[in-house]
Amino acid sequence: MHGSHSISPANSPRVVVLTADQGFEETARATFSASAKVGFSVVKGTVSQSRDADVSGASILVADLGGANETELMALEYMMQRLGDRLPVIAVTQSFDGPIVRRLMQMRVADFLVKPVLPVELARTCARAATGPVKAETVEAQTFTFLPAVGGAGVTTLAVQTAMLLLNAGTRSKTATCLVDLDFQHGACADYLDIEPRLDLGEIEPRPERLDRQLLEVMLSYHASGLAVVAAPNRPAEMRSFDPHVVTRLLDLVSSHFDFVVFDMPRTWFSWTDSVLCGSNRVFIVSETTVPSLRQARQLVEAIHERLGDDVKPQVIVNRFEQKFFSSGLRRADIERAIGRSVAGYVPNHYGLVREAIDRGVPLDEIKPGNKITAQLKKFVLPQAGNKASRDAASAGKDLNPRGAGVNLGGERVRSATAP
């Protein structure tokens, strides 16, 4: 490992690049060495080889992780702990990978780039990092992600109502809350709230570096309640998969400017889905109270665990749940045996209330304050809502079906514990 330095003008920003990639080094030199206003130096070698390098005087550190294996990630984590909040760090990786992005987010890197990196992209990323907020002052948004187990499970309804709950979670004033509709083809959040969708990803994609707070504000829609909404106009006849870097850049920007962010996810798995799930504080899979939907929910839980490991812990919300005396349908015992510990809880079926709220574009509480759907959602997303909601939920959880009929939930006959 050895360094290659350029002279830094007095009081000018200085970029230090750690890399073992000759091609990336040449890109960095082409980006900065011609400028008299920016100091530039290279530390040659991998991040693990350079973890104790002297970067005193640097304004920005660009760390090339190569393939971003565990050794390089641990070295970067060590380096960032050693540096503290003294300077922003930009990570560069060989390819886009959801779990790695989550690790980088946990380390609080200022930004990340994926090779090949264009000189203009590197310059603008460094400029944003240099002028961005001090990391110690950055407040990370609490993010809640809702995925459908099947189509029509009620994901958008629950996402909208959760966003409304979080908006009003402050004791004295409304919180900064944003609802993000990530179903770019069939999204319904704007329709549910009767507002105009203003997000234009087609405009952002050719020049993602243009996406900043000012442009985001132009593309935000606002509900009368004060809820901010990121939603694109429906394109039912188009099937597009946007650049994952564009989508994650949008979500990163949203998360840095709001206290709470709620994601309404499409059922289709895109290249950016891993990144969204990895960056979420809570992940809810919404299932109907039907055997096919519950099977899909269980399979989705297993797929997420296999794909993303233990960093993401999805929970299943069983929507439109009804308990009837002397019914041979699904009971809690059947559902919990099929889904296991992943069951977050149950949302009751009040179709008339939900339909009226959707038709009027208002939250459920505006039509019926203290309704049971809102009460259950509070239990999921607002633990501080109090013990009464928990007691009510526990009371509602008693099995009301004494018949104990068995239900097939995936290859085996699942029976209630009270079944003969």
Entry keywords:
alpha/beta; Rossmann fold; 8-stranded mixed β-sheet; 6-stranded mixed β-sheet; 37% helix; 18% strand
SSE inventory with pairings:
Layout: E1 2-5, E2 14-19, H1 22-32, E3 39-44, E4 60-64, H2 70-83, E5 89-93, H3 98-107, E6 111-114, H4 119-131, E7 142-148, H5 155-167, E8 177-181, H6 189-193, H7 201-204, H8 213-219, E9 221-222, E10 228-230, H9 244-255, E11 260-264, H10 273-278, E12 282-287, H11 291-308, E13 315-321, H12 332-339, E14 343-348, H13 351-360, H14 364-367, H15 372-381, H16 387-396, E15 407-408, E16 413-414
Parallel strand pairs: 2-3, 2-4, 4-5, 5-6, 7-11, 7-12, 8-10, 8-11, 12-13, 13-14
Antiparallel strand pairs: 1-3, 9-10, 15-16
Plain-language structure description:
The protein is of the alpha/beta class and 420 residues long. It folds into two domains: 8-137, Response regulator (Rossmann fold, 3-Layer(aba) Sandwich); 142-401, Rossmann fold (3-Layer(aba) Sandwich). The chain contains 16 helices and 16 strands. It has helices spanning 22-32, 70-83, 98-107, 119-131, 155-167, 189-193, 201-204, 213-219, 244-255, 273-278, 291-308, 332-339, 351-360, 364-367, 372-381, 387-396; strands at residues 2-5, 14-19, 39-44, 60-64, 89-93, 111-114, 142-148, 177-181, 221-222, 228-230, 260-264, 282-287, 315-321, 343-348, 407-408, 413-414. The strands form three sheets. An eight-stranded mixed β-sheet has the order 9-10-8-11-7-12-13-14, with helices on both faces. Helix 3 links the parallel strand 5 and strand 6 (111-114). Helix 1 packs across helix 4 and helix 5 (155-167) crosses helix 15 (372-381). The radius of gyration is 25 Å and the shape is elongated. Residues 4-10, 134-138 and 384-420 have low confidence and may be disordered.
